[in-house]
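Q: My labmate handed me this sequence with no annotations at all. I'd like to see what the chain might look like in three dimensions before we decide whether it's worth expressing. Could you predict it?
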Amino acid sequence: MAEQSPPYWVLISVLFSSQPLTPSLAMTLHQVAYDLYRRGDTVQPVAGDLLTGKVHNLRKDVQMGAISGPAFEAEIETERGSGVVRFLLTRQGLEMMEAVPPEPPRPKYLN
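A: Here is what I predict for the chain of 111 residues:
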């Protein structure tokens, strides 16, 4: 049986969003933010079927009640228009992601 990824509400906590977030949009923002966090970068573009935009690593930790973690801000364009999402990666989610080994790179074929 294949392992499933943790649910998005364990991985990401949205502080503010001017757009309604679907589970797939939340997971896309989580993946970009997690990549930024692991590399220590400040900004990364995001593009896909559902959105385009940029995710910014705010390089500070925030706490809201019992939830804490590194903070991010995304400027996005969706089919519903432009918006801003402020969120954090939860410490619990970071611990879960670090326990899962990264996927091996897929071979690139030239045909």
